[in-house]
Design goal:
By secondary structure, the protein is an all-alpha fold. The protein has a domain of 52 residues. Helices cover 77% and strands 0% of the residues. The chain is built from three helices and no strands.
Length: 77
């Protein structure tokens, strides 16, 4: 979604779907990011793997924010 927001197709059929894609990005990525973050916060496990899980959770949690920022910067006057 971030890619399609940053580099949109020419105007036409897809011009109104970009904003809905940002919402879909949040609907899909937020539960995945929260699940990975919850697994990383569990106390039973190797500390190194917990750190990797927490660091990995940053990516899916930040993608909806990045998509919305790109949408506002590139598509809204």
């Amino acid at each position: 979604m971030v890619w399609s927001t940053a580099f949109p197709r020419p105007r036409g059929d897809w011009s109104g779907v970009t904003a809905l894609g940002g919402l879909a990005c949040g609907v899909v990525d937020l539960p995945i990011g929260l699940l990975v973050l919850a697994v990383g916060m569990l106390k039973n496990g190797a500390p190194r793997l917990r750190t990797i899980c927490i660091a990995t959770a940053i990516l899916p949690l930040s993608l909806p924010i990045v998509a919305q920022l790109l949408l506002l910067r590139r598509h809204c006057p």
